[in-house]
Design goal:
Elements lengths: L4 E12 L2 E12 L3 E5 L6 H9 L6 E6 L2 E2 L7 H6 L2 E4 L11 H6 L5 E2 L2 E2 L1 H15 L14 H12 L6 E5 L7 H16 L3 E5 L3 H7 L2 E6 L2 E7 L5 H9 L17 E10 L3 E9 L3 E6 L5 H8 L7 E6 L2 E3 L4 H6 L2 E4 L3 H5 L6 H6 L7 E2 L3 E2 L1 H14 L16 H15 L3 E5 L7 H16 L3 E5 L3 H7 L2 E6 L2 E7 L5 H8 L6
Parallel strand pairs: 3-10, 3-11, 6-9, 9-10, 15-22, 15-23, 18-21, 21-22
Antiparallel strand pairs: 1-2, 1-4, 4-5, 7-8, 11-12, 13-14, 13-16, 16-17, 19-20, 23-24
Length: about 500
Amino acid sequence: MDREKLVEVKNCTMVFPGVKALDNVDFTLLSGECHGLVGENGAGKSTLSKCIIGEYRMTEGELYIKGNPINIPSYTVRKSAEMGVAIVHQEFQLMEDMNGLENIFVGRYEKKGPLIDWKNLQKRGEELLEYLQCDVDLRVKVKHLRTAEKQIIQLAKAILDNPQVIIFDELTSVLQGEGIQNIFRIIDLLKHKGIGIIYISHRLDEIFQCCDRYTVLCDGKYINSGYVKDIDKPELVKMIIGRELKNVYPPKNDTFGELVLQVNGLSSPPAFKDVSLEVRAGEVVGISGLLGAGKTELIHAIYGNHKIAGGEIKIQGKSVKIHTPKQAVRHGLGVIPDDRRKLGLNMLFNIKDNTTLASMKQFRKWGVFQNHKREADSAYTVNKKLNLKYYSLFQLVNKLSGGNQQKVVIAKWMLRDCDIFLLDEPTRGIDIGAKFEIYSLINELAKAGKAVVLVSPELEEIIGLSNKVYVMYEGKIMDVVEGDDITQEKIIHDLLGVEEA
């Protein structure tokens, strides 16, 4: 069956000061298909999508929407929306203090006389959710919704004007299990309506699960396109990073020192209760659990960013009171949060300032003046070690790709030289090549005698990196597994709350 070309990009080049983000890239999206757009961080995926929706105006090249040539200089986000192009971002573009209904229709309220016709908007909102076959209470403020429900609100907002093209930019990076499967179901629903989906993701398993075709970008250049059914994962990885990727997880460090972190009976109902764990110097301790098990809340409680109702935290054998992140940093803790944009970075700062933010006292002359040259030199050294892709230390972090933003968060705590690293989903939104770099870094931290606590929704990651795994179920420690007992079967058994006979 012949399919319409919904989007056609020819010879797209996008130049920013000091960097060529896209170099002569071709891309075609057909009606009724899900097209995977893949590549390493900084490969140009998000830049290409922003050219398609009019957020960026390509420096050179041609763009066609449903066969119509686009006048690039006058092309805007509003015009792309009028032509049936929509995007759902990885980061929530929602107003937290407004309810779901208000977020869907904001800027497009229907009026009945001088007043907003809320009754009709409610009906239309319910029709959108019925179309998506999802159940979300639109009267609830967005800040009180679960992550998966927030994504449904974003999807409902995107399809409000019946688009023919929808870009999913790392949509599932904040979701787990059931939420991801629901997105796949919605993609199938949209495809059957003839809608074309551009699916950007670092999770390659998802490309094989939901995409019909793929396009690979590398360093801003077009590498290859084809049908997903005609390749396997190793072939796709080789195209993305230019080499075969073997031994993804480095050998675990097995030399441990004294106890560095002890948590005894820590409680913060309803998030978690009576949690105890221990981490030694040089040890990577994993925390596994389903969505809502209390993993993230536990990390933030240890870091002083979540109120504790009871229990004790010991560092280097001494009981400490940590009520704020500032106190945690003084005690040698650093955190890589699951939401880098809100909790890990200052998006108005540049790379240098974000990197040195936690270590500014190290760069003071006579205890008063900042030595900006030393700051820049140190920031350059640590970011080079992480293979950060950027054109200037004075580049704003909001201009970096998501994975490179995550590297800056990690660089900040490496520069601080913390004794305890709390890693909450450190590889979220990071491509497979960069993941290996992060895994190697975690291994280096352990070999250097650092204590590492790792939270991840990916069992393979937990198993591949951890010396010991605490499994949480409904806010409690269900089990502790070590050595040869760290298997997928054992952990899944505990994740589901099934007690052994």
